[in-house]
Protein 1
Amino acid sequence: MTDRIYTVLFVCTGNSARSILAEALMNQMGRGRIRAYSAGSTPKGEVNPFTLHALAKLGLPTTGYRSKGWEEFATPEAPALDFVFTVCDKAAGEVCPVWPGQPVTAHWGMPDPAAVEGSDDAKRKAFLDASYLLKRRIDLLLALPHDSLDRMSLQNAVRDIGQQ
């Protein structure tokens, strides 16, 4: 990557678990080269407490996150997006807004840790498992030679990451 700062949006339905985890991980792993955001099609209005627990276990900040709608990122004054990733199957099937900046898009679907039933230990494990999968995908994205790939190659590469 060049000195350019890339902008990434992670989208899920409720914006309380997977997309928040991805936002936090990308902001930390991108080391200032990437500014990540998250949003939902029908936001829950609050961040899942197990999301915050997973972030704490990973040594990431646990404050400053909020469950918000994706319409915030589809306005003329919104940041131009370089990448948009859906991280849940429900959001991937919805009609998304037209994103400013014509970003590269991909579906990085994964199981919903918030849907896990059972003990709090089982739920904490599900959120950590989701975090590890997102971390792996973000590692692969960050390793891509962005500057030497044409748009179509980059589009294919980010879609492939979601299939791994």
Note: Residues 6-163 form a domain with the Rossmann fold fold (CATH 3.40.50.2300).
Protein 2
Amino acid sequence: MARPFKPAFSNLTPAWSTQCDQVADKHDRSFIRTLASFCSAKGIEPEHVDEAALKAFEAAIRASTKKRPTQFIRDTRKTWNRLAATLPGWPRMQLEVADRRPNPSVAPDGLPESFILDMENFLNRSSNGGRFKQLRKGLRADASKIDTRRKILQLVTMLAAKGWDLSTLSGLKDLVLDPKALDIIFDTMWDGGSGEECAHHYNRVRLLRTIAKHWVHAGEDILEQLKEAERAFRETTDGLTERNQAKIRQFGDDQNIRRLIMLPANVVEELRPEQPTLGEAIVVQSALAVSILLAAPVRAKNLASIDIKKHIHRVSETNCYLVFPDHQVKNKVDLEYPLPLATIELLDLYLKVYRPLLLAEETDALFISRSGRQKTAAELGAQIPRFIKDYLGIDLNLHLFRHLAAFLFLKKYPGEFETVRKLLNHKSSRTTVKFYTELNNIEAFKRFDEIVTSYLPKKKREG
């Protein structure tokens, strides 16, 4: 059996050693040195790196004990491409980076101008628009517009995947009034969801019904068909899904709660801000996001949209608020969260030391990529759970921070659903009670167990 590949950094060829010495960031250097070690052992010099060499390298990585090999390989390719584009003397060969998205959306510039115009008019409809006034359809939140635009493009992508001529799409009406288009969309969603209920597909069908009913005034036959599709995809759970309940149970252990709350401070404590690197900037960014979510359990879209000047209101060095106006919030209610001192200090460190390393051009976005672009909710939604998993071994997605906030509050103050409603910005207390009664019950059962256990002899209690 072949021995798994292990990097041997001391055995680099002179050419590879020279290349690695040019890489300043320690994380980038780690990816490149692993590749350099493999290529040195195989007699492949830097200028001869190509797809064949990378395929062999990938096979060796997958056969090794390297954790998360797919992500490591992808990061190595991306690091190489970035160095090839920015570092003088680096081989200019660009490596292919596979698009891992299951269904990448059609780009807007690939659609007819009339369709784009109709879509933007739909997204920017307001209470001044007549027909939406009676329906109380006011100005939509910026985050909601972005999400709705993405959903529409995903629907169009489903048609494109089946060979639909996109040049025939003159407006949103072509998504809902053509029975063949609806059949393709429904079949794609049903097959993609393995014929099961799916919240994402349910929301897409709801969007189609909104377009059909209020934008193009479709007939009752179309509306009824869309209602049936809604019923098919609607999840029947009355609260948290079983998966989310299982993840929340991790925090029935107080030790896990303490580890999560201390994570931002513990991670930053290990860094040396006098010698910051790009890789560390991403780590601090992740730590800051976790710290913010623990203090202000906002939705992922609001987190990603944070603007330093618009949303962060400094009162003093030790007094700071995270503020979102109503038109940028899903439920159209102003949000205002005071940030604890630990979060403020971490924010100041990020802004002063680490964020400047990521800046490619002037921007007020808080969370930016290595190219200086504002990160999307999806990007943060992948980055932050990976950060928590790597450091704590705990599964926690962005939206689960909201459920965690409810769990922690109800753990301390059982039955205070109204406070949880305000904390999470639910419009109706019924939503709060429906989702979090189960969390309240967990603590009730634990307290009952304590009562029963109190009657046991001391030795059995301790055993």
Note: The chain has three domains: 9-86, 108-233, 243-410.
Protein 3
Amino acid sequence: MDASKPTLKQKAWRGIKEYFAISLYLWVIFGLFVIYQSVILAQHGIPYAMHGFALINALALAKVMLVAREFNFADNFKDAPLIVPTLFKSAAFAVILGCFKILEAVGVGWYRGRSVSESITEVGGGTVEGILVLIALLGVLLIPFFGFTELRRVFGEGKLERLFFTSRHPASAAE
């Protein structure tokens, strides 16, 4: 068997691991957004408990990110210094996630019988500035994620994960 070409089972397992890693990262980000929003609204006496949406959003948007990546979306600048593809992908995927967040708000609003303008208020307060701030926040929060993925691409499969997630104590080093 050719060691350089992964089997279908290996590809599927790798895809599942990537999906859950992206989902976990996005869930943490969206969960923190929800907690922050709850704290701010509680200061004004407004109850807010939409914590389940953070997980649903993370699962849905992780799939969007994987599909976009399969289509080589934002794969420009592979030979540029690592900061360039990292920042480019962070910005490009922030725009995609922002657009899907808007589509989600419109879809949920449509289901609840609201107009598009009423539904968009769920995203950044419905103002252009609010939506742009949300996209900017997503872009900044995606920098570590894409920095890690770009480093993994350069170092090779598994090497960066071993550096981050295995002990470097001299007694446990097998190399």
Note: The mean pLDDT is 85.
